[in-house]
Automatic annotation (TrEMBL):
SUPFAM superfamilies: GroES-like, NAD(P)-binding Rossmann-fold domains. It comes from Haloarcula mannanilytica. It comes from the Archaea. This is Sorbitol dehydrogenase. Belongs to the zinc-containing alcohol dehydrogenase family. GO terms for molecular function: adenyl nucleotide binding; anion binding; oxidoreductase activity, acting on the CH-OH group of donors, NAD or NADP as acceptor; zinc ion binding. Its cofactor is Zn(2+). The gene is gutB_2. GO terms for biological process: small molecule metabolic process.
């Protein structure tokens, strides 16, 4: 940056100083008219005046990546959020791309939630605390943190039970309209839902605590325990992590299915006993021939695909448990009511999670869970649209955006 950026004769620029983020400058012209401008990180200058003068203020602007239309992102400047006494300001570093984000990007809606453009996506996030509210004791400035993206109302019957706050009907959830997500430089968030990361846990791993939490909750809903045989349908990020959590809970033999060979191979590399490409093999045959002719104990449907949903009752033995965590676009549960009664299947839904972040972070720290291993690629903030396009490719499991990168 040089003095050529400003009108000749108005100011003399001296002494560059370092600063993080945008900084607002209130320029006073010789006629006394204030004009607000800004400079980028690392480009802040002190000024000596000639005819006019410059006065520096605290940073007020930040970069944001908005979904401005279906299939289209735009970079804009927004006001940097201020914090309440119970909140912290987090400089976002990594954001994972979820399947729901891709639905919003491609269709402008997801599960009946319709985007009111412009809208910010991203709810799998981690970063560094740069400001702390006066009432906050849980975290301090410079802490590296994972952000739990849901804010319950804390005033309903679901919120009254600490195990069911995730069912709050007035939940504000990052990136779910109308609540903006984390593809921005800074997020103000209640400290209650921000969790410090141990030194050995990276910010990328911190961002992936969210999908890991979804998988942990699904396995808890299924009651996975030592020796259980488990079918996981879907080899996307949730399916891969469901299989890993099931292994960590002591499950016996695990089968994972998908229509993409690369995802099946990844699951096998990560420890599942049988990876089944359903375009070439029948998972029911694999189960009957290798595990139990009566079926598996538990099926966890993680894809949302209609054919996978239909497979669950064929795969599970009588008295078995079936949990649905994958969100279908347009599919229904198996409707053979007589068969469901006679075989005593237990059907359960699994929605998001509650109280999982501390255990998830500890599991990453100890090596019990490997979330880094599901990452297919990482791209910079300036390549967000390309990152979403790549994440939508069938072979991709998990994409991550580095929001901390320069545009």
């Amino acid at each position: 940056m040089t003095e050529d950026h400003y009108p000749k004769g108005r100011a003399r620029l001296v002494s560059p100083v370092s600063c993080d983020g945008f900084v607002g400058i209130r320029r006073i012209t010789p006629r006394g008219k204030p004009v607000r401008t800004h400079v980028r990180a690392g480009d802040i200058w002190l000024t000596g005046t000639t005819n006019g003068k410059y006065e520096f203020s605290e940073p007020t602007l930040m970069r944001a990546c908005e979904l401005s239309a279906v299939g289209e992102f735009s970079y804009v400047e927004r006001e940097r959020p201020s914090i309440k006494p119970d909140e912290v300001l987090v400089r976002i570093d990594r954001v994972g791309i979820c399947g729901s984000d891709i639905h919003y990007y491609q269709n402008g809606e997801n599960s009946g939630n319709v985007v009111d453009f412009p809208h910010v996506l991203g709810h799998e996030s981690a970063g560094t605390v740069v400001e702390v509210g006066g009432d906050v004791r849980k975290v301090t400035e410079t802490d590296r943190v994972a952000i739990e993206p849901g804010l319950p109302c804390e005033d309903c019957s679901y919120c009254a039970d600490e195990d069911t706050y995730h069912l709050c009907e007035d939940m504000e959830y990052m990136s779910s309209p109308p609540t903006d997500g984390a593809l921005v430089e800074y997020v103000a968030w209640p400290a209650r839902y921000v969790y410090p990361l141990p030194e050995s846990v990276s910010l990328r791993e911190g961002a992936l605590v969210e999908p890991l939490s979804v998988a942990m909750h699904a396995c808890e809903r299924a009651g996975v325990s030592a020796g259980d045989s488990v079918l996981v349908t879907g080899g996307g990020p949730i399916g891969q992590l469901v299989a890993e959590v099931a292994m960590a809970r002591g499950a016996g033999q695990i089968v994972l299915t998908d229509v993409v060979e690369e995802k099946v191979r990844l699951a096998e590399e990560r420890g599942v006993d049988f990876g089944v490409d359903v375009t070439t093999d029948d998972p029911i045959d694999v189960i009957h021939e290798n595990i139990d002719e009566n079926g598996v104990d538990i099926a966890i449907e993680s894809s949302g695909a209609e054919i996978a949903i239909e497979t669950t009752t064929d795969a599970v033995k009588r008295g078995g448990d079936i949990v649905f965590v994958g969100v279908p676009i347009d599919a229904s549960l198996p409707t053979d009511v007589v068969g469901i009664i006679g075989d005593e299947y237990d059907f359960r839904g699994s929605f998001r999670f509650s109280n999982t972040y501390p255990d998830a972070i500890e599991g990453i720290r100890t090596g019990r869970f490997d979330v880094d291993g599901i990452v297919s690629f990482e791209r910079g903030f300036g390549e967000t649209q390309a990152a979403f396009d790549q994440a939508a490719e069938p072979e991709s499991v998990k994409g991550v955006v580095r929001v901390s990168d320069e545009l």
